[in-house]
Amino acid sequence: MTSIEVKGANGERLLFDGATVAKFRHDGMQEVSRNPVSTYREIRVSHKPGKRGKPDTYEVLLAMSAFMSLTVDDSQKPQLDELVAALDATKA
Fold first, then answer.
1. Model confidence, pTM
2. Which of 23, 42, 44, 65 lies 20 to 30 Å from 82, alpha-carbon distance?
């Protein structure tokens, strides 16, 4: 399985490698949290429409053994959809 990377709007990112999900800050320089996929419970994605010429964003809340949150630009929506599908497939 290939890894899935979702880049956040503020230099944060989520990285799914098939066995774990890790959150990084500071443009991927500092790992903040890493959780095994077996602790995955739920992912919530909330759409926030853009205002005054700004792009749409998505608020992501990932519940595992720790909670991870991320704000994602509209350009990262395909990667976000891929992450949601991959995580949901691990629960089945």
1. 0.88
2. 65
